[in-house]
Write a structure and sequence with these properties.
The chain is mainly α. The protein is built from ten helices and two strands. About 60% of the residues lie in helices and about 5% in strands. It has a two-stranded antiparallel sheet with strand order 1-2.
């Protein structure tokens, strides 16, 4: 079966500017050689008009109300590097793991593991802001390695700690969530823009 879909020549280099940040991506449909300059400018303007800033996710650490869950939260807030499991906390309080799990979700809106991750990331921010290295901050809040800390930070917040603290995270998020998919969308994305 022969495809009738248009094929666009891969680009050597494409540039999209968003404020002061410049993004380059190889093999994008924006560098089509058969596209007239005025059509290219219209396409780039349409793509940029469709972009909306994406905020980074806040690192929320809701405080529980139930006294049993609050005791666990207080212990972890006092020592973010405390590596005790939920089972260990439940035993120390004389409740079942299941009960403590249910209460954590009810009071905080998140699982124990997710809450602890948020709490550790939030505790690391002042350390990073005062100039500590990622390694120092990671170990201070209970991560075994800086890479584990960075992975958790990116997974939770959507960017690196440095970009989060500097405010560059919105620009990075816009690129990753909105510009890059269009650039990688190939022929279909270009057809949607020009039709």
């Amino acid at each position: 079966m022969i495809s009738t879909r248009r094929r666009y020549a891969p680009a050597k280099l494409a540039t999209i500017r968003d404020g002061a940040t410049q993004y380059r991506h190889e093999d994008t449909p924006f560098a089509r050689e058969d596209l007239a300059d005025d059509a290219r400018l219209r396409a780039e303007a349409v793509v940029l008009d469709l972009l909306h800033p994406l905020p980074t996710l806040p690192i929320d650490v809701p405080l529980p109300v139930d006294e049993r869950v609050r005791a666990v939260a207080d212990a972890l807030l006092a020592d973010p590097s405390d590596s005790r499991s939920l089972d260990a906390h439940a035993r120390s309080l004389g409740v079942s793991r299941r009960t403590l799990t249910r209460l954590f979700v009810r009071d905080t809106g998140m699982s124990f593991d997710r809450w602890r991750t948020h709490m550790r990331l939030r505790a690391a921010l002042p350390l990073l802001a005062e100039g500590r290295t990622v390694s120092q901050a990671a170990h201070a809040v209970g991560y075994a390695t800086p890479s584990a800390f960075l992975a958790a930070f990116r997974r939770t917040v959507g960017t690196s700690p440095g970009r989060y603290l500097s405010g560059d995270a919105v620009t990075e998020a816009v690129y990753r969530k909105q510009i890059r998919p269009v650039l990688l969308g190939g022929a279909e994305a270009m057809d949607r823009i020009f039709t």
